[in-house]
Amino acid sequence: MLTRNHVKEGILTTLRFLFGAIVFSLMYVPVVIIIYQSFNAGANSISPLSWGGFTWENYAAMFTNRQLYTSILDSLLVSLWATAISTVFGLFASIGIHALNKKARKAMDFLNEIPMLNSEIVTGISIMLVCSLLKPLFPNIFGFWSMLLAHIFFCVPYVILMVLPKLEQTDESLFEAAQDLGCSPWKSLMKVIIPSLTTAILTGALVAFTLSIDDFVISFYTQGNGFSNFSNYVYSSYTKKNFSAGAYAFNALLTFVTLGLVLTISLMSSHKKTKKAKV
Amino acid sequence: MKKVIISAALLIAFTIFATITLSTPNTVLYLLNWGEYIDDSLVQQFEEEKHCQVVLETVTSSEAMYQKIISGTTPYDVAIPGDYMVRKLYAEGYLRELDVKNTNYTALSQYDNIYTDSLTKLMQEYLLDPVTGKEFNAYFAPYFCGAYSLIYSTQNSEVDSVVKENGFRALFDRSLYASPIKIGMYDTARWMVAAYLMSQGKNPNMTHLDGSTDGDIEPALQDEIIKALKDAHFDEFGNDALKRNVASGSLDLCFTQLGDFFDALYLAYSEGQSNIAFNVSIPSVSSAFFDAMVVPTTCQNYELANAFVDFMLQEDHAFQNAQAIGYSPCLKSVCDRYHQEAEAGAYYYGDENTVNALSLKDFLTRYPMYLDPFGSVSELYMFEPKSNDYLTTCEAIFNSLA
Amino acid sequence: MKRFKGLAVPYFVWLILLVVVPTITMIVLTFLQSNGTNLDGAYWSLDSYRRLADPSILKALWNSLVIAFWTVLFCFLLGYPVAYFLSFSTHIKNKQLFLLLLILPMWCNSMLRIVSWLRFFSTDWLSPLNLVGTNGAVIFVTVTTYLPFMVFPIFTVLEKMDRSLIEASSDLGVPAWKTFLKITFPLSLEGVSSGVIMVFLPAATGFAISETIGQGKVRLMGNLIQAVFEKNNYNFGSLLSLLTSIVILLLVGAVAGIREMHKRRKVHHVNA
User: So what's the architecture of B147-288+371-399 in CATH?
Assistant: First the structure.
């Protein structure tokens, strides 16, 4: 009886892993192709994905192809600033929303969901229209500023989504205790409340960065003045013969670095855990 | 707190680094162009000569170019829209006259007698000021020209004869073929409409069944076009990818511009192919196009913009550009240059040591349409939409195919 | 902490400016015939509304909803088990690692991943299948692109779930499948509904995948809106955008409404 159950359990586990493996591989096929192409000298040949020999040149192209490295730097510039600003903005907005009474709170929650529920294309067009209206005042708004505005617009709600629930769980008495100890309300906020939210803030920032660096549609409508981003570089040139295979190299590199970081962190944390367990 | 300060410092450091790397020289030329439509090394040479930076933005249609210019998201100095869009931009006052009187511009100042005869004729016939009826040639400088054509694979021998006998009908009537073939259509809505009308031997600008070309396409004609496009059961809609797919054999036939063929041809040679298994045909009822360099009113550096136009018009540069791009040249001098080089034994691809080399002489004999795209066309049209609605309706037609 | 109410004000103003102003601009534009945002020579007209009668518009909308529906369904069928196994597995020591492995593909640029699928479908082995240009291929690529959006919310809800309920159920001898259907699944519905919304939105309104993989044969609302704006017809484009937003908001509202009802019933149950 026991052994039969064991066998059944074993088969089930295998099936589960098999299913998981299939799903994971579905997501990793393009990643593998990107890595393959990053070393492929014939990455841009007429017959798709044919191997033209091993090369490091695609990696060098990242630094020599002006259109490519411009788009990479543009992407990073917008995403880093959008992440930084929306994290701070979202954090303080969360604190404000948390302090609202029930009715105002409900209205704010609804408003906050609009950027998340509106389709990307409508958001992109909306921000483009706003920037067109602002153009007489700021002639150079299209490009970095319009794209930054748009990215902050769609990132803040996600930061709030991460921070607000944590804030709800925070013990109000901590805040009061700090004040009893002679801290000003602002100081207690900065020294007690915000540090207790660190994980949520970091998660929010990570989500914001991930969405921002990958954005295509919204940036498509807000680019200008020679300022674009990586996704739009790929979109506008992937069918062209001068499409730089450095684009694959950049993403492969990004994957390797992230994978390395993830593995190191997880190894370190499991190492810590075993150490703790031993103690 | 410390970490916040460190992150802020890193962010600022990165911004400084990126700004320095991205920083452009004081003079920037914003160029609005089609993809794969200028020789990068010429751009580099211009940048070095003028100590400036050319910021290139590409689009896939003349309409997109118009939208970009008038929305003002970027102050373009030079744009290269198609013929009818040049007229539209001119009529609406979005173009600045080129500095044609300035004799420092050796090529530009000769603008009225540098283009090939066939092109000059087209310009005189089609590009007239809608109010005064006069030519406005000083507002644009033709860049490349061509005709609507069919690229087809020669692997299946019947395609060749069907295409040559039936012109654009070869795209729409599968009963012309004995074997199943795969047909690709360009994903530009108005090109589909034009392709169908020309396949019927009609004016591609027709909007009414009685043949008139005013206003929007009338519903009955819309229905006819939709039905024909649906019945064609195109295997693929695409743009730049179409020619590659015919070249690699995954499509048998596609509708595209002449220049696309030469682009694919060069690519095939550079990948070491010596048996070219695809060819091009310009039907006897076809449509001409040319793209022209213009200076929009958004231009912030008029002098540099004119210098750029002049630079691209100079024989050496225009010749080099034509060799790199593959579209048919607009300048008389460049056509003459091709013949001289061919006589002198120059190569279209490779040199005497290359296995699959092609001499320029053979190239010109094999593909005479390269220098004379309108030569074999008996009924030549040009695209000239009369209304804005027309284009939206074309889009609706494309949409009802899915 | 009530004193920090004021901090909500800048965000409120920001949202009003960036949500309300463009919406009003779009509404005004739909009643005009203008040259883009340039109002010189613009006049009032209902032309854009007249164009709505074109059957191709309804068709694009319907196509978008159908493609999004299948995408959501497949994401759910693939994503739920993965989230479930990951959350309930006793074999996986380091769940965080697997979770990160699931995010990792998202760090590769999505546009480039789409292009990679396109190249993959066009290789010599796969091109005889004629995948490119079919609804199936578009749905497939959309599923692989947005799958993590389904897995995460479900996983989060499963992780938060009170396991004692499930243990109690199995202690009482209820078969595992029944426990799942009666307890685990209903309790995870909140995550499912979040996942459904997060996958549905980009699947129904994107234009990159349908344009790249669909090769013009799959035309969705996003493609139509993009093409119309590109033709500088901001009037009709605005109308299509508003229409899309209304349809999406109604559908999302319906999902949220069902969730709310479900929640209330649950509370009712507990109270009873």
Answer: 3-Layer(aba) Sandwich (3.40)
